[in-house]
Write a structure and sequence with these properties.
Shape: flat
Number of helices: 2
Strand content: under 5%
Structural class: mainly alpha
Distance between the termini: 30 Å
Strand order of the largest sheet: 1-2
Oligomer: single chain
């Protein structure tokens, strides 16, 4: 039996939107830029993106994906996202 996977456009679009949301505009240029460990051991997840960049990314995704976008972005819950 062979498993056949299907590429579905809406799934690919959803993955791209999540990745674009956290896009900082910076790219790692070589492997030495990435450090898994620091002096205290394993580094916890860390999001190095400021609020203005995150709001801009969210606004661009809404413009691209939604016919009617949410005009107001809640500042208090800006870093709370659900990927469903």
């Amino acid at each position: 039996m062979k498993i056949h996977y299907e590429n579905l456009d809406y799934q690919t679009d959803a993955i791209s939107s999540v990745a674009d949301l956290f896009d900082t505009g910076e790219r790692l240029t070589n492997k030495s830029d990435f450090h898994l460990f620091d002096t205290f051991g394993v580094v916890a997840n860390q999001l190095d993106i400021d609020k203005d960049r995150l709001k801009s990314n969210l606004s661009n995704i809404q413009k691209h994906n939604l016919e009617k976008r949410d005009v107001k972005i809640d500042e208090q819950n800006l870093f709370d996202f659900s990927v469903e």
